[in-house]
Design a protein that fits this description.
Structural class: mainly beta
Number of strands: 12
Largest sheet: 5 strands, antiparallel
Helix content: under 10%
Number of helices: 4
Shape: globular
Radius of gyration: 19 Å
Length: about 190
Amino acid sequence: MAELEISIEAIDLYYEGKHLGSIDYVPENLGTVHATVYANGEIRFDREVFIVGDPYEGFEMISTRYYDGYVLDEFRRGDGYRAGRLDLQSGSIYRINSSRLFDPYAASGYIPISLLPENEGWLWDYGSEAMSAGLDNYDYYYGTVGVGMASGSALLSEPRLSSDEYQFHTRAGADVLVRRDTEIQRIE
């Protein structure tokens, strides 16, 4: 198994294709998640981190314990959470004692948008298609030398793209459709 620390260092918010602003400072207690990756591919997170809000009411970042299901269905009174208000003018997140936008019991409330990748396979770097495969000659380590991969350097410059869409119905009666486009690119 491997222990990972995932740090959310910056956030860019878009609404209907328009850039609303950037956050350049995320407090460690909100933006740090620890994960355990097991040999069979299973991942266990210690926290869930998500954004709630809209351009009119503002946005908040919420950190709860990790749930195996969707937070609106699994959250229980007494579980607790940490919250921060996003200030798009200063580019920072300020800690708040309680959220005015996160209500896991209201069918008409804001839908939490997770900041963790939905495709968990992107959280680790292994195999012949690893983003670091060409950087440190990992081909020998992973046993992929001469196995159909001319060079890992092409992988370093090409972003990985993913689009997904899913629907669900919460206990409180909300019907939710989530569409997400994700791009991960090595920047070093």
